[in-house]
């Protein structure tokens, strides 16, 4: 007898606690395109902008972070992509 007709077992959804927005929690933090140290946290190793569900930012601050990263890239403070090594 084959297992093709068996219904799949229901998958459990794991509860993951949402991170709070660091900019809402600490009002002294500013999002500025000139502060590349702070913006590097929101860029992956490949150079992509980290999504909101991963970074934990609220929607308003995520938009500001995206804008700051794009501005920093345009004036060459941040790279568009990861640097490739030809080994």
From TrEMBL:
Part of the 30S ribosomal subunit. Forms a tight heterodimer with protein bS6. It comes from the Bacteria. Binds as a heterodimer with protein bS6 to the central domain of the 16S rRNA, where it helps stabilize the platform of the 30S subunit. The keyword Ribonucleoprotein applies. This is Small ribosomal subunit protein bS18. InterPro entries: Ribosomal_bS18 (IPR001648), Ribosomal_bS18_CS (IPR018275), Ribosomal_bS18_sf (IPR036870). NCBIfam families: S18. Belongs to the bacterial ribosomal protein bS18 family. Keywords: Ribonucleoprotein, Ribosomal protein, RNA-binding, rRNA-binding.
């Amino acid at each position: 007898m084959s297992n093709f007709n068996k219904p799949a077992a229901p998958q459990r959804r794991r509860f993951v606690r949402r991170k709070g927005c660091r900019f809402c929690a600490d009002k002294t933090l500013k999002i500025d395109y000139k502060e590349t140290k702070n913006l590097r946290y929101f860029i992956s190793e490949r150079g992509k902008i980290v999504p909101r569900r991963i970074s934990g930012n609220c929607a308003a601050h995520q938009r500001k972070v995206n804008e700051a990263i794009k501005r920093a890239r345009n004036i060459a403070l941040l790279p568009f992509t990861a640097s490739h090594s030809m080994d």
